[in-house]
Specification:
Strand 1, helix 2 and strand 2 form a beta-alpha-beta unit. The protein is built from five helices and 26 strands. The strands form three sheets. Strands 1, 2, 4, 5, 7, 8, 10, 11, 13, 15, 17, 20, 23 and 26 form a 14-stranded parallel beta sheet that branches. The protein is mostly beta strands. The N terminus is likely disordered. It has one domain: 3 Solenoid (Pectate Lyase C-like). It comes from Mycena metata. This is Polysaccharide lyase family 1 protein. Keywords: Glycoprotein, Lyase, Metal-binding, Signal. One of its GO terms (molecular function) is lyase activity.
């Protein structure tokens, strides 16, 4: 019965048949990720050595759980292996986080990451690195993750294939101050909270589902950068909300040229920064060609919330659980609805403990 359910669920999303979803409730193109099956328990918060996170991800095929909670302070980037499942939700309260360096899935495949905090920040002196890098990777899903203080990008997915980022917080990038950069695809961005980035929320040069996201305090939000590539975009039930750093609220859709085909429905823009959620419909997308139906047959089925409902749901549940001081700070700025928030260059400027990283 489970296989039959998965078959029809994947058909509805236009995805190839696999025997099971990445996990119950997984959606979109990354939901075909198979992850790992060999149990491995992280027992140490040290940067390296037996029982550490670095040790756990060094071998393909592992299904990783956590017997410890707190931050792992990384002295160098961590490279993931293929076929991994990282179950951050298994960590004791207050959960697990990685800080100070890039986590890379570059060139790897079949990776499932859930409930993990990835916070790069200025502890990383390499300005060419991102908080999470999945360039040229395939079959990757991030769900209920918190990605903050990215230096080059928060999420780098250039050349990535079959990607889902869902129910996650992508916020407060420093350095380039960019959210995410995706090329190749296809990709699904679902019920994410994007906060206080200059641009790339995301930059997507790919066939894309962008459904029930909330974007706050942007300078440019959904972007294709006037690419010469021919791509299709399903933009449904998203809420764009201007904040103190927003210089042009009309840049909710940025550099969307006539090479793009866009199905836009149920999107809202709150541009007045008055502390009240009172946006208006925003479904005119630059000079893109208007599509009368989604390019992907599963997009309508994913869009179960209105933009207003997405605002409530995403603010309540996005990011790693339990919600820590960094995510609480991010969410509070969004709740101000235009009166609070800033695009930053240093995580310490948040005023949070532990040089801005917060304390787990």
């Amino acid at each position: 019965m489970a296989q039959i359910f998965s078959y029809f669920a994947l058909l509805a999303l236009g995805l190839p048949f696999v025997s099971a979803l990445a996990f119950t409730g997984a959606v979109g193109f990354g939901s075909i990720a198979t992850g790992g099956t060999t149990p491995f328990v992280v027992t140490s918060l040290a940067d390296s050595g037996t029982g550490t996170f670095r040790d756990a991800v060094s071998v393909s095929g592992r299904n990783i759980t956590f017997a410890v909670s707190g931050y792992v302070v990384l002295a160098s980037p961590v490279s993931l292996s293929s076929s991994l499942t990282i179950n951050g939700q298994t960590a004791p309260s207050p959960g697990i986080g990685l800080m100070g360096r890039e986590i890379s899935a570059s060139g790897k495949t079949n990776i499932i990451i859930r409930n993990l905090r990835m916070r790069q920040g200025n502890l990383d002196t390499d300005t060419g690195k991102s908080a999470f890098n999945m360039g040229t990777a395939s079959n990757v899903i991030l769900d209920h993750c918190s990605v903050e203080y990215g230096v080059f990008d928060s999420v780098d997915a250039v050349g990535a294939v079959n990607i889902t980022v869902s129910n996650s917080i992508i916020a407060l990038p420093i350095g380039q101050q960019f959210g995410a950069h995706l090329e190749t695809g296809p990709a699904t961005w679902y019920r994410n909270l994007w906060v206080s980035a200059h641009n790339r929320q995301p930059l997507t040069k790919a066939n894309t589902q962008y459904i029930n996201n909330v974007v706050y305090n942007y300078q440019a939000a959904y972007t294709v950068a006037d690419t010469g590539g021919l791509f299709s975009h399903d933009l449904i039930g998203n809420y764009f909300i201007a904040g103190p750093s927003t210089t042009s609220a009309s840049d909710d859709y940025f550099q969307m040229n006539a090479n793009q085909k866009v199905f836009a429905s149920g999107n809202f823009l709150d541009s007045n920064k008055n502390g009240v959620l009172d946006g208006a419909a925003a479904n005119t997308v630059g000079s893109a060609v208007v599509s009368t139906a989604p390019w992907n047959s599963g997009s309508t089925g994913l869009a179960t919330l209105t933009a207003a409902q997405a605002f409530t749901s995403v603010l309540a549940s996005a990011g790693a659980a339990p919600r820590d001081s960094v995510d609480a700070f991010v969410v509070a700025s969004v709740q101000s609805l235009g009166t609070s928030g800033a695009i930053i260059t240093n995580q310490a400027s948040t005023g949070l403990a532990n040089n801005g990283y917060g304390t787990l």
